[in-house]
Amino acid sequence: xxxxxxxxxxxxxxxxxxxxxxxxxxxxxxxxxxxxxxxxxxxxxxxxxxxxxxxxxxxxxxxxxxxxxxxxxxxxxxxxxxxxxxxxxxxxxxxxxxxxxxxxxxxxxxxxxxxxxxxxxxxxxxxxxxxxxxxxxxxxxxxxxxxxxxxxxxxxxxxxxxxxxxxxxxxxxxxxxxxxxxxxxxxxxxxxxxxxxxxxx
Length: 201
Hints:
Blueprint: H1 2-20, H2 42-57, H3 61-68, E1 75-84, H4 91-105, E2 109-110, H5 114-130, E3 147-160, E4 163-176, E5 182-195
Parallel strand pairs: 1-2, 1-3
Antiparallel strand pairs: 3-4, 4-5
């Protein structure tokens, strides 16, 4: 009798426990700031790229270039952004944030990166064999970039007794492709304080 009562009690509580572990998903605005783990996230990528590009476009390298080239916009390409942090960071999303900010500024022209150029060249070769003469695109008409944007993401982590500080430092450099002269160096820092409960269930 006692055993049967215990079994009934356990069976009655099962729905309660199973309900506690249910997952709830809510749709939110993509621009909303949500920090769950304290790691680098989409908000960091967006804010850093915006701040960096605003600083880069506010510097005199653009006006100096235009003075030397009859008002022409400088052409920029984004090179490799190295991740030297403690975390896995998808640098491609960061690169795309940089590209979008540069293009939308209207201050510079932009060209395809190396992998995209290889695909485009392959397409031109295919057109040369299969497309009509009137629509096939010509070789040797690519626009060479004037500057390449390169960078690195570094971190310093400090942790003790359920508390953690994550320090991110992003450095970007804009380099003249012809003479290798650096025309702009940008730096953005992010510091996060993460406090975790000693006990979690």
